[in-house]
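Take one record.
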Amino acid sequence: MKKNVLSSTALLAVIACLLWSTAFVGVKVGLQFCGPFAFAGLRFMLSGILLVPFWWKRRPAPHAVRNHAGLILLVACFQTFTLYGLFYFGMTLVPGALAAMVIGASPLVSAVLAHYFMTGDRMTAIKAASIGLGLSGVTILSISRLPWASPAGLAELAGIGILLLSNFSGALGNIFVARHRSDLEPVFLNSAQIFLGGLCLWALSLALEGPMTIQIPWPFWVSLLWLAFLSAAAFSIWFILLRRPSVRVSELNLWKFLIPVCGAALSWFLLPGEAPNFWTLTGMTCIAAAIVLFNGPTLRTFVSPGTKTR
């Protein structure tokens, strides 16, 4: 039974990360036609609405919502409003592949914060080694872009800093969800927090970017619909995994090292002007090795689910 749980956790974590890895291309496409905060607000309000049919029959009672209002607001603030406000703004300053690489540092931030804020989620030698290996891969990928030598070097460096701050915000949101192991339906929690965060981002866009024009070409709407879907699906999967008693925040977030690998590859393939080189491939190899090092037993269980335990 335990191996089945580990296998399903690994599979669901990989699916969520693969979905998230497509976001970099979608965001870069949409930002050609819309301001970052308006685009983010529309995406997450729509995502929250898309999830309503999946929790409506199991909707919590009004008093349960009031009792958990603080959690919903905290998660909305850190997991959607702050994280994606910074992420979308940072994406206006750096290429899609580089953004995917920097976001790949999020497992390190999650592991460090979990060490201090989560009981029983301490840093171990294997965890530190695998995270260090993954971080070295992200560092190689980032340095290989030579952002300080590009025409927009200072802007790219600022974008990297903003994206790292978004990692910090997302890690705090993960910890809030994991620590508050209530009976509140995870899909409802995701729907509520993602809609509220999107609404706040939309309000911010009206103040900073002005009203959005409706004469926008179809690539924007395609990217918006895809991003809304992947947010609804990936966050719901992630929240369900965070609620599992056997899942640790730092271990689960290590799977996010898949995001820069897949996100960068998609950006190189789909976005003009972005291509890999020797150093970027080296960095991707380090990240893949980090995942295998830490999750080796889980991966073997997933590949051979029929293995008997003693």
The chain is about 75% helix and 0% strand.
